[in-house]
Amino acid sequence: MEKNKILVLEGGFNEEHEVSLATAKEIKKSLFNQNIEFKSLLVSPKNFDEKIRNFNNEYICINALHGPYGEDGQIQKILENLSFKFSHSNSEASKLGFNKKLTKKILKNTKVLMVDHEILENRSINKEKLIEIFLKLGSFVLKPASSGSSFGVKIFKDINDINSFSKDLKKNLSLYKKHKEVLCEKYIQGRELTVAVIEKNKESVALEVTEVISNMEFFNYKAKYSPNIAKHILPAKIPHKAYETCKEYAKIAHDTINCRGLSRSDFIYYNDKIYFIEINTQPGLTALSLLPEQLKYKKTSFDQMIKNLIECSL
């Protein structure tokens, strides 16, 4: 392990830039603990293709990026074209996992349950279209089809919410200006669950099920990365059958999308059923993140996970 040359990719200059820096901090701390030498590169979409060429492809890149560009297959494609080895999923799996429309399409032929949804082009959104979706789905959630960390999530519980949103439609839609498509997903007010999957000896293993109880309306960006806003119940206090189904679905999603190294899937437990919401192919590894918490519960060290992540990339 000590012989490998490690390059930590961090930043991204997107809506998840600060989270990436926090993830990278924990990764670098682990590498230091294990006496693994490393360098780091602050990534910007504007010049990454140029900057990465300053390093030869003997480096193994640990991808600590989150959000657009770093997590959606773009940076992975560049690394593949330059024959770099890198952590987490390849370009195709990253693209599938980051795009909620593609994720749902590929999981449609599995046993994984999903809630009803519609895809809209950003430019087609208006009050009439939102009402049309409401009449079809009932209460629904609007979010970018390609994004992470609950960015841009808006819940429409009734027509009044649509009227309120539409009063300043242009301003409200500006949040999605970088996103071509949005996902409208039927809103079910169940219990929020999450399952981390890691790989051991090239075999994926679902860890545990955490229930997330947020002081916010839902487990949003602020709740994920601010202390004392969300409570994590580990293991989740749900029936054994539902618990095992949740783990099974997380493994199916990881394997079907062909994730590598690790992933984390989010679910809603509602009316005794588990519904898949989304997968994160590069889950946060910050001090407040859910995956490290599940590792600790399983008595698997963070250092060992980072070691596994490097080995999966070889």
CATH fold-level label of the largest domain: D-amino Acid Aminotransferase, Chain A, domain 1
What share of residues are in beta strands? 25-35%
- In the CATH hierarchy, the architecture of the largest domain is 2-Layer Sandwich
Which structural category fits the helices and strands? alpha+beta
Rg from alpha-carbon coordinates: 19 Å
- How does the overall form come out from the CA principal axes? globular
Give the count of helical stretches. 12
Distance between the termini: 11 Å
Fourth-level CATH superfamily of the largest domain: ATP-grasp fold, B domain
Task: Give the class-level CATH name of the largest domain.
Answer: Alpha Beta
Q: How would you sum up the major sheet?
A: 5 strands, antiparallel
Number of domains: 3
Average pLDDT taken over every residue: 92
Count the strands?
13
- The string of secondary-structure elements, in order, is EHEHEHEHHEHEEHHEEEHEHEEHH
What structural keywords apply?
314 residues; D-amino Acid Aminotransferase, Chain A, domain 1; Dna Ligase, domain 1; five-stranded antiparallel sheet; four-stranded parallel sheet; alpha+beta; Rossmann fold; 13 strands; globular
General description of the model:
Helices cover 36% and strands 26% of the residues. It has helices at residues 17-33, 48-51, 74-81, 91-98, 100-107, 127-137, 159-167, 169-173, 221-225, 240-257, 290-297, 302-313, and strands at residues 5-11, 38-43, 59-63, 85-86, 117-121, 140-144, 154-156, 181-186, 191-200, 203-214, 230-233, 262-270, 273-280. It has 314 residues and is α+β, with helices and mostly antiparallel strands. The chain folds into 3 domains: 5-88, Rossmann fold (3-Layer(aba) Sandwich); 97-113 and 189-313, D-amino Acid Aminotransferase, Chain A, domain 1 (2-Layer Sandwich), CATH 3.30.470.20; 117-186, ATP-grasp fold, A domain (Dna Ligase, domain 1, 2-Layer Sandwich), CATH 3.30.1490. The model is unreliable at 218-225 (pLDDT under 50). The protein has a 5-stranded antiparallel β-sheet with strand order 11-10-9-12-13.
